[in-house]
Amino acid sequence: MKSAIAHSQRLLKIAAAEVRDRPQFHLLGNQQLAVDLVFHEVEQSRAADYKYVIIVTGGPGSGKSVVAKRQERRCAVAAR
Question: Is residue 27 a contact partner of residue 66, using CB atoms and an 8 Å limit?
């Protein structure tokens, strides 16, 4: 997937440290399942060299941002 738009490596490192080091960002219940499912779709997208839009839904405080940050970190590690 060749895209001109990419996250800055510094931003990824800072965000990863926040998620990893703060206890309030531990995944609960189905949040880990959501991360795993999204990561699977990302890997499928990379294998097919095609971009997808993945939407994570949930009410306020359900952990959507935590899932997104964890996913961002996991994708950054996988891309190395």
Answer: yes
